[in-house]
Design brief:
single chain; 262 residues; alpha/beta; Rossmann fold; 6-stranded mixed sheet; 3-stranded antiparallel sheet; 8 helices; binds adenosine-5'-triphosphate
Length: 262
């Protein structure tokens, strides 16, 4: 396989058991997954099935207890040091006393980027998330959806190839979420990033993804991987198409099958 086609993220027989006061928790069991460059991969499954844990393994924030995982051909730890990814959390997590611009530049300041470089990067990523002109506003002056876009901008500031997003729109109402989903697809098309996206929403997973990973709990494992046949161009009303509904059914079936052996 050529370098260009080799997977950006490769997990093989990945296992993770947390030792807790109540005994071991088998958070991930025999997870095998390959994610190619430029894919948009959603992870869907009930609470506790290991979606966040998997993303944190990719990010080098959790140590697997078995199996292997590589990111850009490196260990997750090396990839983190090489700033291979940006991470977006469920809550925007912006500092209220800093302007939007200075929230986005904070990681760059910490890493010692020059003032000029910080300024360029902040203005480029604000443009990418359609927040140009809001640089000097404070987080509380922005709506919830705009704050979440600002946190995406912050994750993009290092220009990493991989964007890891843990239920970034979970707390937002449906209309705002639809709009952000459209904007995220446009951003993905423009930047050609590889995206790993955790969600509880079947329509969101189907609308956004080129690949949908269905997971189930106790122990956390993959029950289905669906390669989406939907075109890259996706107007919101694609959700009414037979193809879309068929994939949504398959995801739902996968989720049900995962529950059947509870
Ligand atoms: N640091 C930890 N120590 C002990 N147990 C943990 C830790 N992190 C996660 N777990 C457990 O591992 C399992 C998987 O958790 P994880 O957060 O990955 O699930 P999830 O699918 O992301 O859930 P949710 O949708 O609720 O965010 C759960 O049973 C959780 O309680």
């Amino acid at each position: 396989m050529s370098e260009a086609n080799s997977p950006v993220i490769r997990a093989h027989a990945l296992d993770l058991t947390f030792q807790t006061a109540d005994g071991p928790v088998h958070a991930l069991k025999d997870v095998n997954l390959e994610i190619a460059k430029g894919e948009f991969v959603s992870f869907i499954g009930p609470s506790g099935c290991g979606k966040t844990t998997f993303l944190r393994c990719v990010a080098g924030l959790e140590q697997p207890t078995g199996g292997t995982i590589s990111v850009n051909g490196m260990t997750p730890d090396e990839a983190r040091q090489a700033r291979a990814y940006g991470y977006v959390f469920q809550a925007a997590g912006l500092y209220p006393w800093r302007t939007i611009g200075r929230n986005i530049s904070l990681p760059l300041e910490i890493m010692g980027y020059s003032k000029a470089d910080q300024k360029d990067r902040v203005s480029r990523v604000l443009d990418l998330v359609e927040l140009s002109g809001f640089e000097r506003k404070y987080p509380w002056q922005l709506s919830g959806g705009m704050q979440q876009r600002a946190s995406i901008a912050r994750a993009l500031a290092f220009d990493a190839d991989i964007l890891l997003m843990d239920e970034p729109f979970g707390a937002l109402d449906e209309i705002v979420r639809d709009h952000l989903n459209e904007q995220l697809l446009a951003l993905w098309a423009r930047t050609e990033k590889t995206i790993g996206f955790v969600t509880h929403s079947i329509p969101e997973a189907v609308y956004l993804s080129t690949k949908i990973v269905v997971m189930s709990p106790r122990p956390g494992r993959i029950t289905d991987v669906i390669d989406s046949p939907l075109p890259k161009e996706r107007p919101l009303d694609i959700r009414d198409s037979p193809e879309f509904i068929e994939i949504a059914h398959r995801v739902r079936d996968g989720l049900r099958a995962g529950h059947a052996d509870d």
